Amino acid sequence: MKVQCLSCAPVLLAASGVHASVNATPQALNTSNVASIPNPGGPIHYYNATGDTPSYQLNSPDPVAITPLNSTSAVADAFYQELFGIANGTYFANNCSQCVAGAEVLHLAAITQPVSTFVQLLIRICEAVPAVQSSLYATSCAAAFGNTPSTSDPYSNGAAGLGAYYAQLFAKMSISTGDFNTYCYNVWNVCPAPAVVGIDESLYFSPKPASANTVPVPSGKNINALHLSDWHIDPRYDVGSESNCTDHLCCRPYSTNKYLHTNANNASVPASRFGSFICDSPADLALSSFQSMPSFFNMNNLSFSIFTGDIVSHDNDDQLSQAYVEYEEQITYQTFKAHLGNIPVYATLGNHDSFPEALNTQNGLNPGSSTSANAMSWNYQLLSSLWQNNSWIDATEAQYAATHYAAYAHTTAQGLRIISINTDFWYKANIFNYWNSTNPDTSGILKFLADELTACEARGQKAWIIGHVLSGYDGTNPLPNPTALFYSIVARFSPSTIAGIFFGHTHQQQFQIFYDFLPNSTYVRNGRTYRNTTMVDYSKPIQMAFIGPSIVPLTNLNAGYALYQVDSTTFQITGLQTYFANISQSLSWTTPVWQFEYDARTVYGSAATNQSGSAWPANAPLNATFWHGVTETMLKNSTLVQQYSLFETKSSVLTKNCTSAACARQKVCYIRSGSAALGRACPSS
Ligand SMILES: *[C@@H]1O[C@H](CO)[C@@H](O)[C@H](O)[C@H]1NC(C)=O
Ligand SMILES: *[C@@H]1O[C@H](CO)[C@@H](O)[C@H](O)[C@H]1NC(C)=O
Ligand SMILES: *[C@@H]1O[C@H](CO)[C@@H](O)[C@H](O)[C@H]1NC(C)=O
Ligand SMILES: *[C@@H]1O[C@H](CO)[C@@H](O)[C@H](O)[C@H]1NC(C)=O
Ligand SMILES: *[C@@H]1O[C@H](CO)[C@@H](O)[C@H](O)[C@H]1NC(C)=O
Ligand SMILES: *[C@@H]1O[C@H](CO)[C@@H](O)[C@H](O)[C@H]1NC(C)=O
Ligand SMILES: *[C@@H]1O[C@H](CO)[C@@H](O)[C@H](O)[C@H]1NC(C)=O
Ligand SMILES: *[C@@H]1O[C@H](CO)[C@@H](O)[C@H](O)[C@H]1NC(C)=O
Ligand SMILES: *[C@@H]1O[C@H](CO)[C@@H](O)[C@H](O)[C@H]1NC(C)=O
Ligand SMILES: *[C@@H]1O[C@H](CO)[C@@H](O)[C@H](O)[C@H]1NC(C)=O
Ligand SMILES: *[C@@H]1O[C@H](CO)[C@@H](O)[C@H](O)[C@H]1NC(C)=O
Ligand SMILES: *[C@@H]1O[C@H](CO)[C@@H](O)[C@H](O)[C@H]1NC(C)=O
What pLDDT score does 148 carry? Predict the structure, then answer.
């Protein structure tokens, strides 16, 4: 039926908001607060909260109040149940969200509970979750996280004490800044890789002037410098014990091989007094390196030496102590001084030269406290005083190092600025790097480096950067964000100011080439300009990092050291020789036998062809252009790749073959990776 509605127009007008139509249908706008439709026998219905309609101030029912947990142990149990449910439950299909959820619970526990409660919580979770146990370098969860020495295990002091550091870290990290995603990716490998941050270079240095691209002109005169690395002397080394062990560490009284059922009484490969393939350095091997040097070169011609870190043995966390680390640092620098005399040693701190291993805390972690309140200041004070007492750095530099993570800058007698930085602030195992993880420089160490280089540039002075953990290569050890900033700094001050970069850590002799950025590598976001440091121009090599061979043979390597010829004004590397001891023969030695290994210009000169295709000029430095040419040739010549691989291990008989094209591509990619992000993007072999 069609409804005739003669008066509808004004209603529609009213409904559409044309309220002023007072001459509209009176009943529709009747303001009576009582319903107009009759409701016989029923209640009266009201408009506008009148009549019986209850007021707005109702007392709604609350749930029965919960009783707050009223004891520390009850709170601890509640945290444990929540964590255990996350860690061992079946709900989480996604390991990343599982890890992030657990980390957030730990964060809440760390900011509310006493440290002792937090530590107990870690121990309980560790004991319940096998994946945590298998990640430990300790005999038990209590030994890893606790700080009560064990009386039952003579080889463990049961007191790694990591729990208290985790309490500090988890109190500081935040889910809101992505810290847990970064932590869960890098430590547990269960989250997708977080994006590498763009670098706001204006926070660290001025724009690169054209003059900074000037290639320094060599003087043609050379000085010599020695590169020592990864000494890892083991004062607990036990001659004759199992050196081919399956536990950790080998060549110790307790070492066993679980497959062969061997131990110190029936060792499959007894630990030689002069070194073994999967052990740290026995004293005789380490000392013999110095003894060998005069037979290869005139020690009087050494201008200085660099030591790129790692003194302390690879003990499990619960076998280390502050006293042990201090002892190793003292005897090592005394030994260097004893053998090198007036030849200065410019040293840098390695990840093993800390207690607990690798842990370094930012001065800004606890705002307001003084720099000497840094938990690790005892170590920075010790190292800086040892270096100063040996006259390798002066009092002002030592004072800086004592309060800034053992970092310093020192001008050598030849006029070279050596800038020593603490690379634990980009090392994956320093858990404090997961705090505020999108900030590439939470410690300020890279700002220090950029400031030093800025000052060098202004003075026209050349600089070497020395550090322990390399910034790139396969990218498994450094972290992407800090090494992205490092790459920016290197590109900014190369090739004019930085004359060379020197690392250790891998125990192998390796190289890293840095390249200039592509012109389109910057982008603007919210009015600020950022550098995408992965956008490099592989046709423009500008800087080199030399990774020094280790004294320690661990793992399956020979012992080695390197000698450089250095241009006396540009301070670029113009020559490189290595020397090694063949550990496969160590059981037959009466004293370690050291040999010349190779000369880089001789071995790689023809591979490093220049633009005209002829051999590398005899007087030209072994700079980034040289090594880029070597990698170009490596992609075409598998014999050369195998040659490089052999020298990486210092000519170990246990060198793995790298003969496939895929292996060559990967190796070249690693050499061309100066940051973690670049290295991690390399193809698999
Ligand atoms: C409805 O109530 C409010 C105050 O509660 C009053 O201002 C308004 O005038 C009332 N409306 C009518 C139509 O009575
Ligand atoms: C408004 O509605 C009330 C209740 O239905 C009624 O008594 C009153 O007469 C109406 N007023 C007008 C102006 O129609
Ligand atoms: C703490 O809570 C428990 C359980 O709710 C309760 O039995 C106990 O009386 C409370 N203790 C105190 C001191 O409030
Ligand atoms: C991810 O979670 C699944 C299911 O819980 C588990 O089976 C797997 O081992 C986890 N992977 C890692 C890398 O932890
Ligand atoms: C954790 O869960 C696994 C199976 O998912 C189970 O085997 C193990 O016993 C559980 N751990 C504890 C402490 O209940
Ligand atoms: C070392 O131990 C492994 C088993 O862990 C065994 O396969 C190997 O043959 C041993 N090496 C030597 C040289 O005895
Ligand atoms: C974290 O880093 C940002 C810069 O990326 C900085 O602005 C902020 O102050 C830092 N937060 C803390 C707690 O230091
Ligand atoms: C940046 O420039 C390079 C070289 O010109 C080019 O190959 C690349 O596609 C460019 N990338 C972007 C994102 O514009
Ligand atoms: C940086 O460049 C890489 C390519 O090298 C690209 O995958 C990535 O998305 C870029 N990042 C940003 C923030 O633009
Ligand atoms: C390396 O040296 C060669 C020869 O002197 C020179 O042409 C080239 O520009 C240099 N490369 C760098 C990155 O300094
Ligand atoms: C490949 O490299 C090896 C080692 O450097 C060299 O002896 C050989 O002549 C090279 N082969 C070619 C075809 O250049
Ligand atoms: C490496 O390759 C060479 C020949 O190319 C071969 O004789 C040797 O057995 C290989 N070594 C290993 C460990 O595979």
Answer: 74
Atom of ligand 1 nearest to the CA of 31: 13
pLDDT, tens digit, for every residue of 179-200?
Answer: 999 999 999 999 999 999 999 9
pLDDT of residue 154: 62
Taking each helix axis from N to C end, the angle separating 115-128 and 95-112, rounded to the nearest 10 degrees, works out to: 150
What token pair was written down for 94? Answer: 């996604």
Q: Distance between CA atoms of 641 and 97, rounded to whole angstroms? A: 42
Determine the Cα–Cα distance for residues 213 and 118; give it in Å rounded to an integer: 53
Q: What is the 3-state secondary structure of 204-242?
A: CCCCCCHHHHCCCCCCCCEEEEEEECCCCECCCCCCCCE
Decide: 530 and 199 in contact? Cβ < 8 Å: yes
- Which two three-digit tokens encode residue 384? 């800086």
Q: Where in the chain is the domain with CATH 3.60.21?
A: 201-237+273-680
pLDDT-based confidence at 245, cuts 50/70/90?
A: very high
Higher model confidence: residue 319 or residue 550? 550
Amino acid letter for position 216:
P
Any bridge partners for residue 224, and if so which? 302, 565
Closest ligand relative to 680 C-alpha = 9
Per-residue confidence at 315, pLDDT binned at 50, 70, 90?
very high
Distance 104 CA to ligand 4 centre (A): 19
- The values of phi and psi at residue 420, to 5°, are -105, 120
Q: Residue 191 C-alpha to ligand 4 middle, in angstroms?
A: 11
Q: How many CA atoms lie within 13 A of 257 on its CB side?
A: 19
Indicate if ligand 3 lies below 6 Å from the C-beta of 67.
yes
Tell me the CA distances in angstroms from 263 to 255, 316, 553, one per residue in order.
6, 18, 21
pLDDT tier at 14, thresholds 50, 70, 90: very low
Report the pLDDT value the prediction gives residue 158, as an integer from 0 to 100: 64
Judge contact between 497 and 454, C-beta under 8 A.
Answer: no
Percent of the chain with pLDDT over 70: 94
Q: What fold is seen in the domain 201-237+273-680?
A: Purple Acid Phosphatase; chain A, domain 2 (3.60.21)
